[in-house]
Amino acid sequence: MPKVEIYTSPWCGYCARAKRLLDAKGVAYEEIDVMAEPRRRPEMVERAGGRTSVPQVFIDGQHIGGCDDTYALDKAGKLDALLGVGA
């Protein structure tokens, strides 16, 4: 299984939605709460090419994007291959 990381913050509806999608696919992920660990926010911004909003999703170090980007990949049928799930 690839390494999945998601930068989040509490009370973020988009974060909850992105995690729900990953959970539905049975994927384990590392959640990095940038409110609980504020020193990690600059790391997220750098890795995400300057994007400051959460969530930011990474699969095997590759920046996937935010919630909408992750759902768009799923709708296009490309997310399962990146996650190593599905038929």
TrEMBL record:
Task: Please name one Pfam family that this protein belongs to.
Answer: Glutaredoxin
Q: Which family does it belong to?
A: Belongs to the glutaredoxin family.
Under what name is this protein listed?
Glutaredoxin
Task: Say yes or no: keyword Lipid metabolism present.
Answer: no
For the keyword Electron transport, the answer is yes
Glutaredoxin domain mapped to chain residues: 4-64
Give the record's keywords alphabetically: Cytoplasm, Disulfide bond, Electron transport, Redox-active center, Transport
Q: What does this protein do?
A: Has a glutathione-disulfide oxidoreductase activity in the presence of NADPH and glutathione reductase. Reduces low molecular weight disulfides and proteins.
What taxonomic classification does the UniProt entry list for its organism?
Bacteria, Pseudomonadati, Pseudomonadota, Alphaproteobacteria, Rhodospirillales
Molecular function terms from GO: glutathione disulfide oxidoreductase activity
Superkingdom of this protein's organism: Bacteria
Any one GO BP annotation for this protein? cell redox homeostasis
Taxonomic source organism: Aerophototrophica crusticola
GO cellular component, alphabetical, reads:
cytoplasm
Q: Could you tell me the gene encoding this protein?
A: grxC
